[in-house]
Amino acid sequence: MNFTMEEAIEVLERTPEMLVSFLSELSYGWLTCNEGDGTWNASEVIDHLIEGEKNNWIPRLEIILEEGEAVPFPPFNRYAHINEQNTLPIKEKLLQFQSIRMKNLAKLKTLMDSYAHLELTGTHPAFGKVKARELISTWVVHDLTHVAQITRVMAERYRDDVGPWKEYLGVLKQVNK
Amino acid sequence: MNFTMEEAIEVLERTPEMLVSFLSELSYGWLTCNEGDGTWNASEVIDHLIEGEKNNWIPRLEIILEEGEAVPFPPFNRYAHINEQNTLPIKEKLLQFQSIRMKNLAKLKTLMDSYAHLELTGTHPAFGKVKARELISTWVVHDLTHVAQITRVMAERYRDDVGPWKEYLGVLKQVNK
């Protein structure tokens, strides 16, 4: 096991600022390009991250702490943000993400005030029994997977522009998963 | 063709600041984890980006502008930074990258002062004829591919920690390319 609460928080608290540096005031072309029908652009990925802060990580952790395995997590709708059509400019979306993330990290520290809490278990609707520390680890890797997604989506826009170099660029060999 | 000089520069100028936000003061564990023997950790990726600023992008562009197709680019050693063993702390490496990138972008704007320059051609040692705009597009996608790599390497560290969620996390399904 590599997980520690301190190191997990290190990544979780850096993601919003990193995305601000990466995406703020980028051109429309970069923010709206995607990998084809039904795939997300960078701006929609931020909507999804906000949705996770509202309805996934902390709410599920609270269910683990309050209900244990007795009450399964409500399913998280990974497409909720698409239906909601958040039309805010990217900079405001990023600040919204940053604000809710910081509140959630403060809450995380309050909720998980003993090592024993990390081993508490809940019931995932698809996987069954899961541990609090698995949920928090997943929160971290979920950030990383979506940063990777944004870079892949943006790289795709220049697939033809790089000419023969595409052979050397790993990010152009990954598929939408 | 999606490439424009303005939009390419948007990404190139954001990468250093994004990496500062992402990696500065991260724990040793995050900065030194890799994907196994012969693979790079986050800190080594920064060394490679610095190496590219010194010996790849602008030097090759200068060869295109000065020599055209007559003189092939010298091969770029993708492993040079591994032999050099840069032992600076990550924050200093990131500032070094930021500083040389900003100088190179200033140079790029001076060198490429007409649209006609984008269509100029040079000789790549493996690919043969390449255009200046393909080289600059590749510079952009090269940034993106290495940000994707860092997220993948860090995610790998928590592969077992996420428990059953690994099924949902695309970044854990990508292989080292």
TrEMBL record, chains A, B:
Top-rank taxon, per record: Bacteria
A Pfam short name: DinB_2
Protein name: DinB-like domain-containing protein
Domain DinB-like: 12-150
InterPro entries: DinB-like, DinB/YfiT-like
